[in-house]
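Bumping with the actual sequence this time:
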Amino acid sequence: MADVHSAAIRSKNMRAIRSRDTAIERHLAALLTALGFRYRVQDKTLAGRPDFVLEQENTLIFVHGCFWHHHHCYLFTLPATRTSFWQGKIDSNVVRDQRHIEHLSAQGWKVIIVWECALRGKLKLNDEAIMTRLEECILAADGNTAIDHQGIHPLSATPSDAG
């Protein structure tokens, strides 16, 4: 199947995709603030540049887009055009994410991934459910966790199981 957009339009669309201060990051920031957590954003000194650093809780939060980080949910669909390019790109993102999580865990940080599907889409969680899960992961959970539209899950140990 050919792309429905010209190369120039596709390029313009891809340039418009933000890497920081996205709508889902702003939403999560509002929820963290409502819960009373203090945080820093996009710390360049830490591997993977976590979206939120909760220093007092020794916790890092990444907000992952389901497409870019290959979450096994209804929001992920591999493009029909240039499939091998996209598969390689997304697979390398998953491997890099896993490497960053392992490095940060070795430094003593607790890592939480909040998946896009928890914050937007037809199966998203309501704010109360997200806040409950965040609070549980930050204050009570041992080890690294992920929050998606289905709930809380321990983070996988290998890149092939990620998501």
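The tokens above came from a reply further down the thread. The beta strands are 40-41, 52-54, 59-64, 110-115, 145-148, 151-154.
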